[in-house]
Specification:
Family: Belongs to the glucose-6-phosphate 1-epimerase family.
Oligomer: single chain
Strand order of the largest sheet: 6-7-8-9-20-17-16-11-14
Organism: Sesamum indicum
CATH class: Mainly Beta
Keywords: Isomerase
GO cellular component, one term: cytoplasm
CATH architecture: Distorted Sandwich
Shape: globular
CATH topology: Beta-galactosidase, Chain A, domain 5
GO molecular function: carbohydrate binding; glucose-6-phosphate 1-epimerase activity
Length: about 325
């Protein structure tokens, strides 16, 4: 009886809707009024609102909202590659596929469903995917909204192939910010990073925080489990906690690149910052039957929070 009550409880806070292209979306809500909206196109979180109804994710006003194009904004799933290499489309195919809702996924840790509104999605390769990336896999994604409004995403990739395969991965997360020049990222100081604006040359971060006055496109390596994005003007801090994802991508296209992107407004770079939990520098390799898990938990808290409060030893999940 207890199990069915728990199922009802998390289902009661779900709403299934369709977008104007007829693609299914799932809206998660918590009792305090926070919400998250997930599109089955790409398994993409396209909205995350706090209990005051304020949108925490950026989506471009010029975003193309029609498959198979991935939408510019929210949190997209970059798999089986991040970036652009080989015969695959940029950032891989997962973000342009239609995912299915999975009613009875293999169990996660009990804490992963306790007190949370959540949805489980599943992606398997289609015939055309196997032509470009010939590997059998099952990709399970759980998106949860906790009672405190935190957004949690758990990705599980299983190799159901007869041979090993490798992939890279990122939760491509577009945070909404008041003004990019007022924002700082803490938790990545002193780390090495690959600079995509300099042919992936390796540098060491010198600042006591990352601030923005021009285009930034970097992969920070071997990063701590917790990173903070401080929005001075809004007095808001985004806290990202992660597991199984050693790297962090920091990206803002700035003015020139914004004007060159058809699905991005010329001035919108001022209102967004991408900080992605990722596994890019070293590919993840799975033997037949093996499974990888990558988790991220996002919180939006008042800005009295600072990264001195980040204890890397705490078990957040």
């Amino acid at each position: 009886m207890g199990h069915s009550a728990a199922v009802w409880d998390h289902r009661a806070s779900l709403e299934l809707t369709k977008d104007w292209n007829g693609i299914d979306q799932v809206v998660l809500r918590n009792p305090q009024g926070a919400s998250a909206r997930v599109s089955l196109h790409g398994g993409q979180v396209i909205s995350w609102r706090n209990d005051r109804g304020e949108e925490l994710l950026f989506t471009s006003s010029k975003a193309i909202l029609k498959p198979p194009k991935a939408m510019r904004g929210g949190i997209s799933i970059c798999f089986p590659q991040f970036g652009n290499c080989g015969s695959l489309e940029q950032h891989g195919f997962a973000r342009s596929k239609i995912w299915t809702i999975e009613d009875d996924p293999p169990p996660l840790h009990p804490n992963d469903s306790l007190g949370k509104s959540f949805i489980d999605l599943l992606l398997k390769p289609a015939e055309e995917d196997l032509k470009f990336w010939p590997h059998g896999f099952e990709f399970r994604l759980r998106v949860s909204l906790a009672s405190d409004g935190n957004l949690i995403m758990i990705s599980r990739v299983r190799n159901i192939n007869g041979k090993p395969f490798s992939f890279s991965f990122a939760y491509h997360t577009h945070f909404s910010v008041s003004d990019i020049s007022e924002v700082r990222v803490e938790g990545l100081e002193t780390l090495d990073y690959l600079d995509n604006l300099c042919q992936k040359e390796r540098f060491t971060e010198q600042g006591d925080a990352i601030t923005f006055e021009s285009e930034v496109d970097r992969v920070y390596l071997s990063s701590p489990r917790c990173v903070a994005v401080l929005d001075h003007e809004r007095k808001r801090t985004y806290v990202m906690r992660k597991e199984g994802l050693p790297d962090v991508v920091v990206w803002n296209p700035w003015e020139k690149k914004s004007k060159a992107m058809t699905d991005f407004g010329d001035e919108e770079y001022k209102q967004m910052l991408c900080v992605d939990a990722a596994a890019i520098e070293k590919n993840i390799t799975l033997k037949p039957g093996e499974e990888w898990t990558g988790r991220v938990e996002l919180a939006a808290v008042p800005s009295s929070f600072c990264s001195d409060d980040l204890d890397p030893h705490l078990n957040f999940f």
